[in-house]
Amino acid sequence: MAYREILYVVEDRVATVTLNRPERLNAWTPVMGEEVRDAMRCAADDDAVRVIVLTGAGRGFCAGADMKTLSALSAGKAAGAPQAAEVAPAVPPPFDREAPADFATRYSYFPAVPKPILAAVNGPCAGLGLVFALYCDLRFAAPEAEFTTAFARRGLIAEHGISWTLPTLIGLSGALDLLLSARKVDAAEAYRLRLVDRLAEPGALIATVNAYARELADMVSPRSMRVMKRQLWDARSQTLAEAIAVGDREMRASFKSEDFREGVAHFVEKRKPAFSGR
Predict the structure, then answer these.
(1) Ramachandran angles phi, psi of 132, nearest 5°
(2) 186-192 long-range CB contacts below 8 Å, 24 or more apart?
(3) What stretch of H or E contains 229?
(4) CA angle at residue 183 from 233 to 60, to 5 degrees?
(5) Within 10 Å of residue 96's Cβ, how many Cβ atoms?
(6) What angle is formed at CA 228 by the lines to CA 224 and CA 233, rounded to 5 degrees?
(7) Which residues contact 190 (CB under 8 A, 6 or more apart)?
(8) CATH topology of domain 6-216
(9) How far is Cα 229 from Cα 113, in angstroms, rounded to an integer?
């Protein structure tokens, strides 16, 4: 696919997906959604990629759904409004047909991507942009980043699973505060709330994210990352006993893997690992 609204670059085994509508603070469109999904498919299928970074071009991460789309939904069939298929395209097939149904909807597929996804939040992150940031596995923020749910101030509700992801990260009352008020949260408060996992120094966001991504790519078993990511996301809907049973099964499989043999060998031989992902 030739991309119009994102950029896709692979370097040092890290795939960077950049939302690329800087003049609109990377506001989300159906085209952007299709392109991000395609890029995630490319990264998932590429053995040369071990980690994925999602960020925004210019001074914003993603300002939420593009107002043209929201205006069209509000106005119905107003003159000049986008066609219905453009506003709400058909629901795509599951990203991974073996993943739980929770991770098979239009926007909840990030947990089904078998590689870690790191959000590099470089500026405003609102509405649907926040939804996607929360579906990433880890979130890094620049000091100038701002977060808002936005929905309540547009007459909307807690959309696309944020009623599940947000309280999972910051608790029920914290999630109610951010959803009901739709107030803006700066990067420092977001870090205190655990809405983001790392707060970068000024001007160092991409360097910080890339350093972490390269450490994962160079020093960690891709197979281990793939299995552990699935374990942790699936465990949210499992009992403790079910999670233990899965862990026991996956541990037995790990003992038979090439990455386990390499993990022991590189430690004993005191050298850099050469994991294959198998």
Answers:
(1) -70, -40
(2) 186/145, 186/146, 186/147, 187/121, 187/141, 187/142, 187/143, 187/144, 187/145, 187/146, 188/143, 190/141, 190/145, 190/147, 191/141
(3) helix 222-235
(4) 70
(5) 15
(6) 155
(7) 141, 145, 147, 196
(8) 2-enoyl-CoA Hydratase; Chain A, domain 1 (3.90.226)
(9) 9
Mean pLDDT per block of 10 residues along the chain (278 residues) reads: 95 97 96 96 97 97 84 53 52 86 91 97 97 98 97 93 96 97 97 97 97 97 97 95 97 96 94 93
Q: Report the amino acid identity of residue 70.
A: L
**DSSP 8-state symbol, 39:** H
pLDDT of residue 85: 44
The continuous run of DSSP H or E covering 185 comes out as: strand 185-186
pLDDT given at position 84: 43
The token pair that represents 171 in the structure block: 């608790």
Sheet order of strands, 198-199 included:
6-11, 14-19, 51-56, 117-121, 138-141, 198-199
User: Residue 76: what pLDDT?
Assistant: 60
Phi then psi for residue 194, to 5 deg, are 75, 20
Check if the beta carbon of residue 200 is closer than 8 Å to that of residue 141. Answer: yes
Indicate the pTM of the whole model.
0.90
Tokens at 51, concatenated: 């980690």
Helix, strand and coil content of the chain, in percent to the nearest 5, comes to: 50, 15, 40
Quick one: tokens of 36? 């991000």
Alpha-carbon separation of residue 260 from 118, 125, 277 (angstroms): 25, 39, 10
Cα 43 to Cα 206: distance, rounded to the nearest angstrom = 19
Picking from 20, 208, 14, the residue whose alpha carbon sits closest to that of residue 115 is 14
